[in-house]
Design brief:
mainly beta; four-stranded antiparallel beta sheet
Length: 123
């Protein structure tokens, strides 16, 4: 059973910083891509940043230069350092990962989601 658990959300003033963490656990054989998505009230879920197994990052334009995504391979953890936060960054942030896991005598590759962590930025 694979799980993604996020932490690090909270309330911060505009211009402040937060660091999100997401730890993957379970019968994991490999993780190809990890990333962060967010969903503000009344909107759809949007990509924030992803990082591949070769550590190539990808950012949505609105966060490029302010957010940094990184991975800790030993701990199967992905981080999102968020600086210069703006009120429009307010959303629930979800961790996502494409994971190959062991299932009995076989394996499968699936897309997994965390339950989300709230980020609120006040003006």
């Amino acid at each position: 059973q694979v799980q993604l658990v996020e932490s690090g959300g909270g309330l911060v003033q505009a211009g402040g910083s937060l660091r999100l963490s997401c730890a993957a656990s379970g019968s994991i054989l490999s993780i190809k891509t990890m990333g962060w998505y967010r969903q503000a009230p009344g909107t759809g879920r949007e990509l924030v940043a992803t990082i591949s197994s070769d550590e190539s990052p990808n950012y949505t334009d609105s966060v490029r230069g302010r957010f940094t995504i990184s991975r800790d391979y030993a701990g199967n953890t992905v981080y999102l350092q968020m600086n210069s936060l703006k009120p429009e960054d307010t959303a629930v942030y979800y961790c996502n990962a494409l994971i190959t896991s062991r299932i009995f005598m076989s394996y499968k590759t699936s897309n997994y989601w965390g339950k989300g962590t709230q980020v609120a930025v006040s003006s």
